[in-house]
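Chapter summary example.
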Amino acid sequence: MAILDKAKESLTGGCLCGAVRYVLDFPPGSSWPPDSHICQCTQCRKHTGSLMPPLITVNPSQLRWANESDNGKPPAALKEFSSSKGVYRSFCSSCGCSFTWRSEATPDEIEILIGSIDEKWLIGDRTEKISSESLTEPDNFEKALNAKDGALGREICTPMAGQMFVRNAIKGATDVRLGGKRFVEVSQKMLEIPD
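The structure predicted for these 195 residues follows.
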């Protein structure tokens, strides 16, 4: 991992309705990119509605709730659900957006759902000056992807920390290898699927 540069001191995120906003701080000396992984466990799928939700792991001290009216405290719309003993998943009670996974067994870690990170960090400048029609012309889509300023999506989203619960992979849909090691499930043994 590289040492963080000043352009990546923090990332912002939030929900669809704006009731919950957060900042992820990466102080000097923090590792970049943050550990990211994909989970295919049934609970993550149910919590997010996604077959392969991507998450990043940070220390809870790096997460700040940013709604001005809440003075840095978790906003009133942020709720937690205990999905299993000692495991909590957060969401916005107004619009349903999913945010975090945390476990009492690992108090120095909190998982942030990457889809809740603001679009400007994931895809950068949307380059609205490029028309949708022009993107259908040969090579224009690839050029537009490469021209976006500020996009950190590849760094953040590549699951270099691994793919979890691949025992739940769906043949032809979620059995792809996206990066990192592949683990049968998450347990003390951390059984890895060989290459």
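To summarize the output: The radius of gyration is 18 Å.
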